[in-house]
């Protein structure tokens, strides 16, 4: 794939620590493979816990000078970083598809989306306003400052190798924090390419480091136990989020958690059915179902169930599966064999409990990491897919009778990230959007992600919000100053 790049130097095979490109002292590396072809595309340093501690020490030294800059100065650096990301959009997209598998069109969109956080929070850097409060006694003056929290550490997954990092690092840097990221070991190349561009944009040495390692739990421990780290930000499964929260408790560390979802996608009988079908396709099959906001349970009201199912089947059968680097591919491979195993497990469990295959249901002839996009009807709440996130191209259609029933079914989960519904009746729309216990509700749309809105979950889907003016709060502390005059 390097032959496709205008700037092959964006493929970096060293970690980026304290402004230097480094190998592991042990000489250990790990392989990055292209999920569509299975070939090794890079060997990346497998850093030790001690080397990650060093990255934290450098971040701690670098943060003071960075925080002392004016918001405008930090904004200028972030703006440059954004501009360079966009100037290199095509190369960054190719690198992403090569390591992650998503179709090139989706990778391009993710680079623009990811860079959007850098642009947005760069602008916010100038607007970290404090407060004055009328004193409680005649001699008292009360001022509230919002100051950077300190060194922030992040752990991110492989499904959005660029945007999951920028939505953390951009607000951190805008606030005046330094940041150490440990990207998923399946997709470090996107993170390293981003670091190379950050360096070129003038992000000072040590303010942003990328530590690559396969020892996720060791690095997680270092992030939680190192007293120099004041903030942990994580995107991944609820299971790992719980482990990290427990570990972070010893230091009473501030945590932001973007965890699993189990998104309901509801189609009411007054919905525009064609629009709902299109929304379901985008919401369910984007990134081949590997997003935490993908529809997991599709609830369709009785009267429109058969029509919706037929139309969805027709659209799903048009989706072209292939190597993300090939023109026209709409669904790439899944990230690894374990992902296919989970899709099969959910499908088999559903079939055992009465579901019927409408389309798909088989491995794809392209290879072991490909699966046919699959729709089943007659799904019910006893099936695994009703409670667990599939993270793959499997769309189960549940049938429901009325609003109250579907609201109860939709909310019957430990998760609360994204939810969607299609309806036209105004009273119904207002009632349902208010009743869904989710951090995000898409009404008559299947696509909700943008840097200008607060993304995050309730219940066991997480803590904190990323994006919008709220996204910077996770990297700031309030300081109340009481002055007697
Ligand atoms: P996913 O299914 O998206 O891989 P995970 O929660 O397993 O979700 O992984 C998300 C990120 O967390 C990945 O970068 C992974 O390597 C990392 N990770 C996994 N286990 C741990 C752990 N015990 N401590 C810290 N990070 C972990």
Concise synopsis of the structure shown:
With 485 residues, the protein is of the alpha/beta class.
Describe this entry's structure for a reader.
It is a single chain. α4 packs parallel to α5. The model has no long low-confidence stretch (mean pLDDT 98). The protein has 485 residues and is an alpha/beta fold. A hairpin with a 6-residue loop joins β3 and β4 (40-45). Strands 14-15-16-13-12-17-18 form a 7-stranded mixed β-sheet, with helices on both faces. A 6-stranded mixed β-sheet has the order 9-8-7-10-11-19, with helices on both faces. It has 14 helices and 20 strands.
In this structure, how is the largest beta sheet organized?
A: 7 strands, mixed
Low-confidence stretches: none
Oligomeric category: single chain
What is the overall pLDDT average? 98
Approximate strand percentage: 15-25%
Share of residues in helices = 25-40%
What does the overall shape look like?
A: globular
Cα-atom Rg, whole angstroms?
23 Å
Give the CA-CA distance, first to last residue.
67 Å
What binds here, in terms of ligands, is: adenosine-5'-diphosphate
Q: Class by helix and strand content?
A: alpha/beta
* Tally of helical runs: 14
Adjacency order of strands in the biggest sheet: 14-15-16-13-12-17-18
Number of strands: 20
GO molecular function: succinate-semialdehyde dehydrogenase (NAD+) activity
Pfam families: Aldedh (PF00171)
InterPro entries: Ald_DH/histidinol_DH (IPR016161), Ald_DH_C (IPR016163), Ald_DH_CS_CYS (IPR016160), Ald_DH_CS_GLU (IPR029510), Ald_DH_N (IPR016162), Aldehyde_DH_dom (IPR015590), Aldehyde_DH_Superfamily (IPR050740), Succ_semiAld_DH (IPR010102)
Protein name: Succinate-semialdehyde dehdyrogenase
């Amino acid at each position: 794939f390097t032959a496709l790049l205008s700037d092959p130097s964006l493929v970096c095979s060293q970690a980026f620590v304290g402004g230097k490109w480094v190998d592991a002292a042990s000489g250990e590396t790990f392989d990055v493979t292209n999920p569509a072809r299975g070939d090794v595309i890079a060997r990346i340093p497998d850093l030790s816990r001690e080397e990650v501690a060093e990255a934290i020490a450098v971040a701690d030294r670098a943060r003071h000078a960075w925080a002392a800059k004016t918001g405008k100065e930090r904004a200028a650096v972030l703006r440059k970083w954004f501009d360079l990301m966009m100037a290199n959009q095509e190369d960054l997209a190719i690198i992403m598809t090569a390591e992650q598998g998503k179709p090139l069109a989706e990778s391009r969109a993710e680079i623009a989306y990811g860079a959007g956080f850098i642009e947005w929070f760069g602008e916010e850097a100038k607007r970290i306003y404090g407060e004055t409060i009328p004193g409680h006694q005649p001699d008292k003056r009360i001022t509230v400052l919002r100051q950077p929290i300190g060194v922030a550490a992040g752990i991110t997954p492989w499904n959005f190798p660029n945007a999951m990092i920028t939505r953390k690092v951009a607000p951190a840097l805008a606030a005046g924090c330094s940041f150490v990221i440990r990207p998923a070991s399946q997709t470090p190349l996107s993170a390293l390419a981003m670091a190379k561009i950050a360096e070129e944009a003038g992000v000072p040495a040590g303010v942003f480091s990328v530590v690559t390692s396969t020892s996720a739990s060791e690095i997680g421990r270092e992030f939680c136990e190192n007293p120099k780290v004041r903030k942990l930000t994580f995107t991944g499964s609820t299971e790992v989020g719980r482990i990290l929260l427990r570990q972070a408790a010893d230091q009473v560390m501030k945590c932001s958690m973007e965890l699993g979802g189990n998104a309901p996608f509801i189609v009411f009988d007054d919905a525009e059915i064609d629009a709902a079908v299109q929304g379901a396709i985008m919401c369910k099959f984007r990134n081949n179902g590997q997003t935490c906001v993908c529809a997991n349970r599709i609830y369709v009201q009785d009267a429109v169930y058969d029509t919706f199912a037929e139309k969805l089947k027709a659209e799903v059968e048009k989706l072209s599966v292939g190597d993300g680097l090939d023109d026209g591919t709409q669904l790439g491979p899944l990230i690894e064999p374990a992902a296919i195993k989970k899709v099969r497990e959910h499908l088999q469990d559903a079939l055992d409990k009465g579901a019927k295959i409408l389309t798909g249901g088989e491995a794809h002839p392209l290879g072991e990491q490909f699966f046919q996009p699959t729709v089943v009807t007659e799904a019910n709440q006893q099936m695994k897919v009703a409670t667990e996130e599939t993270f793959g191209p499997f769309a189960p259609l549940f049938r429901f009778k009325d609003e109250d029933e579907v609201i109860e079914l939709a909310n019957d989960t430990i998760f609360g990230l994204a939810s969607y519904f299609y309806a036209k009746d105004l009273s119904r729309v207002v009632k349902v959007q208010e009743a869904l216990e989710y951090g995000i509700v898409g009404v008559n749309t299947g696509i909700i992600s943008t840097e200008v809105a607060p993304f995050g979950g309730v219940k066991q889907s997480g803590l904190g919000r990323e994006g919008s003016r709220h996204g910077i709060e996770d990297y700031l502390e309030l300081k109340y100053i009481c002055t007697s005059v």
